[in-house]
Amino acid sequence: MKIEELEVKYSYKFPKLFKKLWSDGMLDWMGGRTTPFGKSENWAKTIYPCIKDNPPLLLHTGGFDFEMLRAEDILSFKFDELWDVESHEFIPFAKSEEGNIFAFYKNLQTDGESAIVYIWDEMNETEVLAKNFEDFIFRKMLEAIYDVDKDELLADYKDEGFEGYLVDIRNDLKTTKPYLNDKYAEVLSDIYSRKEVMESRISYSLITHEELAQTIQTHLEFEELDLVFEHEVD
């Protein structure tokens, strides 16, 4: 599928970074596969082993419940009937396991680029995560090394634990860094290379909450950051 089909559907021009990632296959979590799975196949067994070492965007750093939408899913996306899509122009590109949606928000733009928002499925709340797509990637990759839940690590990594997780997120950085500006790449490279692991009763981190908050404020701050608004019809 060509990205222009999505642009026509949503009357929207995706930012250059998104288009570059698209053309390079970095938004494709299916490894190029377009055919349905057979009876003995599934994504975890069939696709993931082929893409994990050279991962597409945010494969591991998006969060344990993060999933990029396939092009077909974006094209056929059905907005909830309660969403006020006449007042709020959303262009979805990812989702959580709970059905919450990550989207471009056409209503809020900075230097010609749309903000990225998180739309809660069960609540009438939308949160502004970043002023543009590059900032969203940077924020996600920062948050990926703070407060990493031990139970989720056990479920996904078994005996490899946090060390196995570090291997995977560093692979994410390896494939994503060429698309980031020099400062973001430098900050992430510094943090991801740290040897000292902070451990609490329930999680691991390479960064403190204070440093995370300060880094976000320093690099990502804009007036509407973390703003929450309602998106449903009255």
User: What's the alpha carbon Rg, rounded to whole Å?
Assistant: 18 Å
Instruction: Choose one word for the global shape.
Output: globular
Spatial order of the strands forming the largest sheet: 1-2-3-4-5-9
Task: Give the DSSP E fraction (strand runs of 2 or more residues).
Answer: 15-25%
Give the number of DSSP strands: 9
Largest sheet, if any? 6 strands, antiparallel
Tally of distinct domains: 1
Following the backbone from N to C, one meets helices and strands in this order, namely: HHHEHEEEEHEHHHEEHE
Q: What is the helix fraction of residues, given as a range?
A: 25-40%
Distance between the ends:
36 Å
Uncertain spans, ≥5 residues at pLDDT below 50?
A: none
> Which class of secondary structure composition applies to the elements?
alpha+beta
Mean pLDDT: 97
Count of helices? 9
Task: Walk me through this protein's architecture.
The chain has 234 residues and is α+β, with helices and mostly antiparallel strands. The chain has one domain. It contains nine helices and nine strands. The protein has a six-stranded antiparallel beta sheet with strand order 1-2-3-4-5-9. Strands 6-8-7 form a three-stranded antiparallel beta sheet. The chain starts with a helix and ends in a 5-residue tail after the last strand.
